[in-house]
Amino acid sequence: MAWFRTLTRFSATAKSWPVRTIPTSPSLLLTSLRYFSTGAAVDNRPPPARCGDLEPTRGGEKPRVVVLGSGWAGCRLMKGIDTNIYDVVCVSPRNHMVFTPLLASTCVGTLEFRSVAEPVGRIQPAISTEPGSYFFLSNCKGIDAENRRVHCETVTEGPNTPDPWKFNVSYDKLVIALGAEALTFGIRGVNEHAIFLREVHHAQEIRRRLLLNLMLSDVPGTTEQEKSRLLHCVVVGGGPTGVEFSGELSDFITKDVRQRHAHVKDYIRVTLIEANEILSSFDDRLRQYATKQLTKSGVRLVRGIVKDVESHKIVLDNGTEVPYGLLVWSTGVGPSSLVKSLDLPKSPGGRIGIDEWLRVANVPDVFAIGDCSGFVESTGKPVLPALAQVAERQGKYLAGLLNRIGKAGGGRANSGAELDLGDPFVYKHMGSMATIGRYKALVDLRKSKEGKGISLAGFLSWFIWRSAYLTRVVSWRNRFYVAVNWLTTMVFGRDISRI
Amino acid sequence: MAWFRTLTRFSATAKSWPVRTIPTSPSLLLTSLRYFSTGAAVDNRPPPARCGDLEPTRGGEKPRVVVLGSGWAGCRLMKGIDTNIYDVVCVSPRNHMVFTPLLASTCVGTLEFRSVAEPVGRIQPAISTEPGSYFFLSNCKGIDAENRRVHCETVTEGPNTPDPWKFNVSYDKLVIALGAEALTFGIRGVNEHAIFLREVHHAQEIRRRLLLNLMLSDVPGTTEQEKSRLLHCVVVGGGPTGVEFSGELSDFITKDVRQRHAHVKDYIRVTLIEANEILSSFDDRLRQYATKQLTKSGVRLVRGIVKDVESHKIVLDNGTEVPYGLLVWSTGVGPSSLVKSLDLPKSPGGRIGIDEWLRVANVPDVFAIGDCSGFVESTGKPVLPALAQVAERQGKYLAGLLNRIGKAGGGRANSGAELDLGDPFVYKHMGSMATIGRYKALVDLRKSKEGKGISLAGFLSWFIWRSAYLTRVVSWRNRFYVAVNWLTTMVFGRDISRI
Questions:
Q1: What residues does the FAD/NAD(P)-binding domain cover (chains A, B) (predicted)?
Q2: CA separation (Å) from B476 to B101, B160, B479, B482, B484?
Q3: CA A152: distance to chain centroid?
Q4: Across the interface, do B35 and A475 touch by the CB < 8 Å criterion?
Q5: Chain B residues with beta carbon closer than 8 angstroms to that of A119
Q6: Vertex B133: Cα angle to B127 and B139 (nearest 5)
Q7: For an interface test with A, which of B149, B168, B191, B219 has the most A Cβ atoms less than 10 Å from its Cβ?
Q8: CA angle at A145 for the pair A142 and A147, rounded to the nearest 5°
Q9: On the CB side of A349, how many CA atoms lie within 13 Å of its CA?
Q10: Among residues B354, B37, B304, B75, which one has the least CA distance to residue A321?
Q11: CA contacts within 13 A on the Cβ side of B210
């Protein structure tokens, strides 16, 4: 009688369904009605005209700090801002901060991508909970300092996502932390063919490309020559990023590729091309040590200047042609086109010009921090290097300054100009670190390039490097994840799934 | 004298660079020369013609088992194959197996994507280490049973990656484990606008879309109506996948969205649309329990048949229009277009027709397992449901069978037909499981839909479900990661970074 039981059960459910749902959730039924009736209306009309702006704050409200960017500077600032005094509005095309010092490790699976991305909402919970604070997933398109507002445009993602729309955000205090742009020196083909290493999606692309090339070179029909090309990873730029990536890559090759891609292991090569000297900011002995270690671990160091980049090869100024399968570009950063376009005072080098208190010179209520900012000449101070360290320190300082201003009642637009701002910002260099793979790193604790100080190399400093970063990763969740990632990589090797 | 120290250091390095590198790595210099000289040659010629095939095995070599696909069936088979007897060649467009039962959890950040992806090279290391075994990142384009070979084409990824090329792979034994395709019932717009939930990149897309919509609805210029639409998540199909995803989603909303997206929390809704009854394969009491729990946790259950899908709304057969911001489609699977196109015997329902020993009827040396296969009518057996459970069991059985055949010397093409194959494959259903969120799950241990048996619901079965899957995740690495993911989710909440 199985068929009969089934039959009755089926009909039973059929009948009982509405009977079950209606009483348990009348509210839901109502909402559903609201939905379904309004549904037609939405789509028979053209998409509604966008007309929303975030208007200037009124008497009853807290003064509003608008932060452009979610990098080291912007996030450190938001972390320190007193949300009892200010509402915070962050405008950025990405909802997380990238923990850049560890980004290179994610390309080869030493770390998971998520472990190096810290959601802004976790750094400053107010932006997603406080009524007057917001995070806007948008790009800044311009600044109207006259009327104290920022022009923004939402980001989009192709089909089935809303078309981007423009809106304005009024501010009481504006903090520009837009960061910088990778330098290409106007070399043709860089933007088209090279991958930078600044965002998580860059690391993801490098990883996908690397694994694709590894697998394609194992497929019948690939010539010897082509295998060599596909598996030739070229890194341009011998700064910390380029060196760290080369180190990670050679680690990946020696430890993982040899086992997991045994058929093609003899074809994979890493070449690091630098115009001058690698790690130029580091102590001479450290540089020599790095050179020795990298060479030992199979990284070919080539001195040369890239003249032209094509889809499968680069051309050096001496005419040498270097075929590649993966090209990573890390030759430093410069002012972004947006920063260049802004009608604001500039520092030597074209960054946004700031005074000792990180205020944009002569523009009331506007501040600039991080890679996008530099001291104006009149301060007599040098433009600081584009380092996470500098950005983090400036963000911390400015948070304190704004809190002081706010406490003194100068939080509103066009006020607080006469307040005593206290000590100006002074940058103390805490030294530089760079890993070079194989549990080795460099730690240069000199206060300046010319100064004296301690320099460490090898396992000890690798350990220092690891722990230093581990404690710097913003949330406990990610500290924990990074530790777990490092552990599993040591125990199980790197992850090689291509997703 | 700082400037002088610098000066000397600079020049020192400049001079010492070549001096340092040459002695330490003559081999590298040689390779570099090889590279750079051949470099020019590579790119001044048109890309070399692809002419490589994997030829039939010869006397000295092991017989070759070619496996098409890297899903449950194919991977379980490769895991069990005795690589002392056979060389294994896997052809698949993805280099990992997706642990499908946990895929839904990755969309909302309960699990990391990587935790549910198991690289084929870790399941069967031989394919990346043994000289005669390979993994080819390629699609199967056709089967030439006459000449015992498979037509393949490599996958590509747009610019800067090689154009796809065709090649052939000869086999001694062929195992077709190509899986199935999501059913759309020919409804217009499904492929364009809906997201399936079968691959990791689907889960990634769902996650990105969900977070994009959450953030866009917080931006000035979004109308009330539009917020409701953007944050309306519609799931079509009330099978285990659809139910599990709805459950995870409502978990995500109640536990995370309320805190982290407080501004828009009242707009987000989940609707599950099913033509008949949800979880139709489950015990009636379990189904009622699921319905109650889902409704309680805010999932709106709607009975209806989707007639048409547009970019911002779906239309039901009764004319109701349902606007949506995210549309997930999980209405079961059917034979893929490739399977349909193959000139092989078919089972009822158009799958590849197999006999009791999983051999493709009347096609020597060709086997088929998993969702792509079904018993031919003459066996008198029913076509088995498209479940991971079935695929896994078939893969295991066939590995044993092939090993037996190989040991008996029937491994080569066109041999072993007369060998005693032993017991035919018999499927024993071990029961079904589905989680419905909020630490609750259903476990239906009945042997068949009509049969009697134990049914569990609630926390206990959630725990069983968790542990059952945890022990099923293939590698220890991933078992560990899944456990860690669950732990961190409980402690820190889900991850909300959009990368």
A1: 64-395
A2: 17, 36, 5, 10, 12
A3: 20
A4: no
A5: 260, 495-497
A6: 75
A7: B219
A8: 105
A9: 21
A10: B37
A11: 32
Q: Are B450 and A39 inside 8 Å of each other by CB?
A: no
A140 contacts A152 by C-beta, under 8 angstroms: yes
Whether B41 and A134 lie within 8 Å, measured CB to CB: no
pLDDT, tens digit, 9 for 90 and up, residues B363-416: 999 999 999 999 999 999 999 999 988 999 999 999 999 999 999 999 999 887
Q: How far is A229 from chain B (nearest CA, A)?
A: 8
Burial annotation B162-194 (CB, 10 A radius, 16+ → b, else e): beebebbbbbbbbbbbbbbbbbbeebebbeebb
**pLDDT over 80 at B329, yes or no:** yes
The bridge status of strand B333-334 relative to strand B181-182 is antiparallel
pLDDT of residue A50: 55
A149 token code pair = 């507002």
Identify the residue among B34, B160, B455 best suited for mutation to test binding to A, counting A beta carbons within 10 A and taking the highest. Answer: B160
- The pLDDT value given to residue B477: 74
Question: Whole-angstrom Cα distance, residue A335 to residue A176?
Answer: 13
Nearest to B497 among A34, A118, A128 (CB): A118
Write the pLDDT tens digit of every residue in A432-479: 888 887 778 888 887 776 777 777 777 777 777 777 766 665 677 777
Taking 50 as the threshold, does the pLDDT of residue A33 lie above it? Answer: no
> Which residues of A fall within a CB distance of 8 Å from B479?
none
CB neighbourhood size of B249 (10 A): 28
Stated pTM of the model:
0.86
| Residue B69 host element (H or E) | none
CA-based nearest residue in chain A for residue B216: A137
The rounded Cα A114 to chain-centroid distance in angstroms is 12
With the CA atoms of B6, B12, B15 and B20 taken in that order, what torsion angle do they form, in degrees rounded to the nearest 10? -130
Mean predicted confidence (pLDDT) in B104-116: 86
Instruction: Return the residue in A19, A139, A153, A160 with the most chain B beta carbons within 10 A, the one to mutate for interface testing.
Output: A160
The three-state secondary structure class of A443 is strand
B462-474 residue pLDDT tens: 777 777 766 665 6
**Angle, to 10 degrees, between the axis of helix B284-296 and the axis of helix B240-252?**
30
Find the helix or strand (DSSP H, E) in which B9 lies.
helix B2-24
CB contact under 8 A, B39 and A322: yes
pLDDT number for residue A43: 41
Nearest to A135 among B215, B288, B476 (CB): B215
Q: Does the beta-carbon distance from A212 to B137 stay under 8 Å?
A: yes
Specify which residues B168 forms β-bridges with: B151
Residue appearing with tokens 């690391």 = A203
User: Is residue A39 over pLDDT 60?
Assistant: no
Find the closest chain B residue to A327 by CA distance. B160
Asked whether the predicted pLDDT for residue B7 surpasses 50, the reply is no
E-strand spans in A53-195?
64-68, 87-92, 96-98, 117-119, 134-144, 149-154, 166-170, 173-176, 181-182
Q: What DSSP line would sit under B242-295, residue for residue?
A: HHHHHHHHHHHIIIIIHHHTGGGTTT-EEEEEESS-TTTTS-HHHHHHHHHHHH
Q: How many residue pairs bridge chain A and chain B with CB atoms within 8 Å of each other? A: 339
Q: What is the pLDDT of residues A380-433, one digit of tens each?
A: 999 999 998 899 999 999 999 999 999 999 999 988 778 889 999 999 887 888
Contact A489, A466 (CB under 8 A): no
CB contact set of B45 (below 8 Å; sequence gap of 6+): none
- Chain A neighbors of B271, CB-CB under 8 A: 32, 35
Query: Residue B339 CB: number of other CB atoms within 10 A?
Result: 22
